Amino acid sequence: MNNKVNEILLEVKKNVKGKDEVIEKILMTILAKGHVLLEDVPGVGKTTLALSFSRVMDLDFKRIQFTPDVTPSDVVGFTMYDSKKQDFVFKQGAVMSNLVLADEINRTSSKTQSALLEVMEEHQVTVDGQTYSVPEPFFVIGTQNPIGSAGTQMLPNSQLDRFMVCLEVGYPSNDALVDILRDRQSSKPLEKLQTLVTKEELLKMQEEVMRVTIHDDILMYIANLCEATRQHEMVELGVSPRGALAISLLAKSKAYVSGRDYVTPEDVLAIFSDATHHRLVLKNTARLANQHARLVIESITKEVKTGLVNEGEKNA
Question: Which InterPro entries has this protein been placed in (predicted)?
C-alpha cells in the first residue's frame, strides 16, 4: 500500500496550499495510529486539513466545537429511558466516528476535556458502566488557540500526552495565499477531492507501518533522548514512556512514508521535536531565560549521539 502514500499527499495538497510538511506529518501520525494537536490562530486551515483527510480516506467525520457549555455527554454519549422499549438506550456521542475534529479544545471545561482521555487511549467509551467501542480506524485531530487568547485554558499534561504530535500550521506564503484565493473564487476544492483509500486499505497500511524494522540501537537512541529531556537543567517534566513509544511509532511511520522498511536515526530526528515539545514542562528559569521547548529539544538532539558505528542507515 506504500504506493498510495504519494497519491494521498498530492490529493490533500489540492485543497491545502503551501503546507506540504504539515500534511505529511499528519499522514504519518494517522498511519502510526496517533492523534494530532494543531495549535495556531483561527483561520489558517486547521479544519480544512481535517476535512481533506476525511474525504481522501473515506472516513466518517464528526466535529465538536468545544465551547464552554459543551458537556462530557456531548462527547461520549449518554443513556436515556425509551418508553417504547421500556429500557434505557445509549445515544452515541460525537466520538463515535473514524475522524473526530475536537475544535478549539482548550476553550471548554477541564471536565469535558477529560471525557476524551479514555477514548483517545483505549478507543472505547464507558457510559453508566457500559463500554462501547468506537469504529476503526479512529483518530482525533484537536485544534487549540494559542495560550493567552481570550477564553482559553491550558490543557492538562495527561491530555497533552495523548496527542502523538503537536504541530503549528502557520500563515501561508503570499504565493500560496494567491492560489487559495484563486481556487475558491468559483468553486470549493474540497468537493473535488477524490477518495483514494478505503477504511480497510488504511488499516492495512497501519499494519504495514507496525512491521517496519526498528533496531535495538535505534530504540536505545530514543531512550537516551527521552532520558536527556528528563535530566535537562531547564526541564521540570520530561518525556514519559508513552511519549517514547509515540516517538518509535512515528519514526516507523516516517520510514514507511519515505519508502523504507527500516528506521534510521534521521527518521527519529525528523519527528522528535513535533512528538515531544508539547510534553515538556519547563522550569521557571527557562521562561526567564526566554527559552521554549523546541529550543531545549534542539540542544538535546545535538548533544545525544546515536551510538551506532555508522551514523547512517541500520536495518538489521
Answer: ATPase_AAA-3 (IPR011703), CbbQ/NirQ/NorQ/GpvN (IPR050764), ChlI/MoxR_AAA_lid (IPR041628), P-loop_NTPase (IPR027417)
